């Protein structure tokens, strides 16, 4: 199996419009969305951001996952994962891989693209507004067993495997441009975000409203905090626990359904999973409703 990754790289135009980047590849004589193969030891999220930089010259922050495209190259099966990605600083320079870049309205980009699969990815992109607001809900990494810990449960720390999970998570949070951190006041939750906090120079702020018991007692307060985080100036990652996260994701999905705009997701939102070390990428529209919810069972995707 060959794995590759790419994105619909977009930039804002006017009050609520967007242009997307389409590149010409002289080697293939085609017009394509920027994408490329995953290098050994690289996650697909890493590869998507790297390929965007190499093929377009622009830094990018990932948003929602759009789809995986499957096809055959010779005798090999190939899977290409695509994200929505907002363009940051950069400038296109023609090269051997890509000799032309055009910023186009999505409909114009679709008309230019050579492959139907790329056009389907653009269709997925336009199914929701471009400028969605992102919150990452992170389940804490592996901690020691409660029965083997003699101290207060709030002080139960991560085990070695959990610390390794936290290190991998730090690299993933960077891909989403996380600029603020919150955690349930439990040692294991705080430690899960520590590697990224240290690397990014951030402070992990407390979020007691997202604790398991707190979500059960006052779900409205927990939902209000998630809404506040979505409205913040920076993308926030919040680390919580295994009962509260599914409840929150399920309630957010129910709100969107009740408003007649069900959220897109790669999982059943009536039974949201929350494995230790996993995370949800929650994307909110301008109306404050959940527009998309992508679940990643670990930080190796």
From TrEMBL:
Entry keywords, A to Z: Hydrolase
Top-level taxon of origin: Bacteria
MF terms in GO: hydrolase activity
Limits of the Nudix hydrolase domain: 1-126
InterPro entries assigned: His_Pase_superF_clade-1 (IPR013078), His_PPase_superfam (IPR029033), Nudix_hydrolase (IPR020476), NUDIX_hydrolase-like_dom_sf (IPR015797), NUDIX_hydrolase_CS (IPR020084), NUDIX_hydrolase_dom (IPR000086), Nudix_hydrolase_domain (IPR051325)
SMART domains (UniProt xref): PGAM
Family note: Belongs to the Nudix hydrolase family.
Protein name: NUDIX hydrolase
Organism of origin: Actinomycetospora chlora
């Amino acid at each position: 199996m060959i794995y590759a990754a790419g994105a619909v790289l977009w930039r804002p135009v006017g009050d609520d419009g967007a242009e997307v980047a389409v590149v010409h590849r002289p080697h293939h004589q085609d017009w394509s969305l920027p994408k490329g193969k995953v290098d050994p030891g690289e996650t697909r999220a890493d590869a998507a951001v790297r390929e965007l930089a190499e093929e377009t010259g622009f830094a990018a922050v990932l948003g929602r996952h759009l789809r995986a495209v499957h096809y055959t190259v010779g005798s090999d099966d190939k899977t290409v994962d695509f994200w929505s990605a907002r363009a940051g600083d950069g400038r296109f320079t023609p090269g051997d891989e890509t000799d032309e870049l055009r910023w186009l309205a999505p409909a114009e980009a679709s008309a230019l693209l050579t492959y139907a699969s790329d056009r389907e990815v653009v269709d997925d992109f336009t199914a929701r507004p471009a400028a969605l607001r992102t919150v990452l809900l992170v389940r804490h990494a592996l901690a020691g067993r409660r029965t083997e810990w003699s101290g207060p449960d709030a002080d139960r720390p991560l085990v070695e495997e959990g610390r390794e999970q936290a290190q991998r998570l730090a690299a993933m949070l960077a891909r989403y441009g996380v600029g603020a951190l919150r955690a349930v006041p439990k040692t294991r939750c705080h430690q899960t975000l520590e590697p990224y906090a240290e690397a990014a120079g951030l402070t992990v702020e407390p979020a007691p409203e997202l604790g398991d018991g707190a979500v059960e007692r006052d779900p409205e307060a927990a939902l209000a905090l998630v809404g506040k985080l979505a409205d913040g100036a920076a993308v926030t990652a919040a680390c919580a626990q295994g009962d509260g996260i599914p409840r929150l994701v399920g309630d957010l999905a129910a709100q969107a359904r009740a408003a007649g705009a069900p959220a897109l997701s790669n999982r059943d939102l009536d039974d949201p999973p929350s494995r230790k070390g996993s995370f949800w990428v929650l994307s909110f529209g301008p109306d404050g409703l959940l527009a998309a919810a992508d679940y990643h069972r670990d930080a190796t995707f």
